[in-house]
Amino acid sequence: MLEWITNTIQIWNYWGIALLMFLENLFPPIPSELIMPLAGFTASPYQPGGAKLNVFGVFFAGLLGSVVGALIWYYPGKFFSERRLKTLADKYGKWIAISSKDISKATRWFNSQGRKAVLIGRLVPGIRTVISVPAGISNMPLLPFIFYTTLGSAAWVGLLTYSGYVLGSQYELVDNYLAPVSKIVLGILVLAFVGWVLKRRRKRTRS
């Protein structure tokens, strides 16, 4: 996969980066943790031969692909019921590593956090791809969805791009550094969700 990602960026430059990040949103097994650091490395002046791409161009190309890819998941949620999407995920999701459990997890998180779940969810591996689905199911307006998606994606893409730019040829280490951080963030989100559930139960008990 690394060779394919490298060749795509070398051949198509910014359009290749946008395409890869678009596909990463559709097919989670394609890791943004490898795409954007590698793209950032191509903009690093420390690589042999100097920078081949502009770091800002790399960032905006990755952001464009990420936002457009998120829209692809938003519209199925808008036009299909949650039950129907779960059925489809269990039947065909194995091809893109998405299951009904993933949709349920993203939906619970969205219901507990509201619109800001789209922003935060874009920063969490395992949720960032499918957080668009409950946003569509809940009929979240398109403009706020794009706004929060863009903010969250910009933070994620910017972090990965800068990491590859700074680490240079060691860009593959980005995934090693992000893995524990991602687990911590996910743990915080789980605790926040549990707190929300307990708070709602207390309200019901009082009423």
TrEMBL record:
Signal peptide positions on this chain: none
Residue ranges crossing the lipid bilayer per the database entry: 12-31, 51-75, 145-165, 177-198
Domain VTT: 30-165
Predominant localisation class: membrane
GO CC entries: plasma membrane
Keywords, ordered alphabetically: Cell membrane, Membrane, Transmembrane, Transmembrane helix
Protein name, entry field: DedA family protein
Organism, as annotated: Amazonocrinis nigriterrae CENA67
